[in-house]
Design brief:
The protein is an all-alpha fold and 263 residues long. Helix content is 68%, strand content 0%. It contains 13 helices and no strands. α12 (194-212) packs antiparallel against α13 (218-256). The longest helix has 39 residues, at 218-256. It is globular, with a radius of gyration of 22 Å. The chain starts with a helix and ends in a 7-residue tail after the last helix. 15% of the residues are buried.
């Protein structure tokens, strides 16, 4: 429901009379276009493509589970998934703007979970994970372009794949250095509001650029952008997302505790 509401925001802002350059996703300019987007009839624009990725992940997860049940051996399942992930890593052009572009990172997590054993060199895994975390800023597209002179999107950068592998492997060790970091209260709070943050951030960034001017220095734009995004995400979480979750939980509880009809 929150996704459907936020997806309608460009259309509502357009009807409210805001200038087109201040509205994210101006292509969604009618109820018909909006309906086709959220029904997945048309390719998604902006954040709307992510629902397709989620649906693919749900299907792939079930397929992997069925495959593993049929094979019955974690090493063989991991080997097959590794072949698929490496093929996607090598030949990225065949999956341009497709949910499969991001599928290999999901496969990495499944492979690591299949091969994980609690005593497998936790210190080495934690050290490599901390190194991957420290180098994350280097693979931000803007920073990457500054250092290398080449423009590359994050999902095409093989270093991002390596970072994801090392981070996921480190998080599998409960006593590792990353686990307390991500279990801290600020990180748990960021996890709670992450979906609201993701859905709202492009609108806030576009509005800020429109109000402050696109030539404004990023050192001024970014702190305001971060503050406004987190504040509005918290409000959205408290006023919309959390009540929705509670409503669906009550609905589910009522459905599971309903007494049987009398004969």
């Amino acid at each position: 429901p929150l996704f459907v509401l936020v997806a309608a925001l460009p259309l509502l802002l357009r009807w409210a009379g805001l200038p087109p350059d201040l509205i994210r996703l101006p292509i969604i300019d009618s109820l018909a276009v909006y309906g086709r987007q959220i029904a997945l009839i048309d390719p998604g624009h902006g954040m709307l493509w992510t629902v397709r990725v989620e649906i693919v992940f749900y299907g792939v997860f079930v397929a992997i589970w069925l495959l593993h049940r049929a094979i019955g051996h974690r090493w063989i399942t991991a080997l097959l998934l590794t072949v698929a992930a490496v093929a996607m890593e090598i030949d990225q052009t065949s999956f341009w703007f497709s949910p499969l572009n991001y599928l290999r990172h999901f496969l990495y997590g499944v492979i690591l979970a299949l091969l994980h054993r609690p005593g497998n060199h936790p210190r080495v895994a934690n050290g490599l994970a901390m190194l991957a975390l420290a180098t994350l800023p280097l693979t931000v597209p803007m920073v990457w372009r500054h250092w290398t002179g080449h423009a590359v999107t994050a999902w095409q950068n093989p270093l991002v794949s390596l970072q994801m592998l090392l981070l996921l492997n480190g998080l599998l060790h409960p006593r590792g250095g990353l686990v307390p970091l991500f279990a801290a209260a600020p990180m748990r709070w960021m996890g709670q509001i992450s979906y609201s943050t993701y859905l709202l951030h492009p609108f806030i960034l576009t509005l800020l650029k429109g109000v402050l001017g696109r030539d404004t220095h990023p050192a001024l734009v970014f702190p305001l952008f971060l503050l406004l995004t987190l504040a509005l995400a918290q409000i959205t979480y408290q006023r919309f997302e959390l009540p929705m979750r509670r409503y669906f939980q009550r609905f589910q509880q009522a459905a599971t505790t309903k007494p049987p009809d009398s004969a």
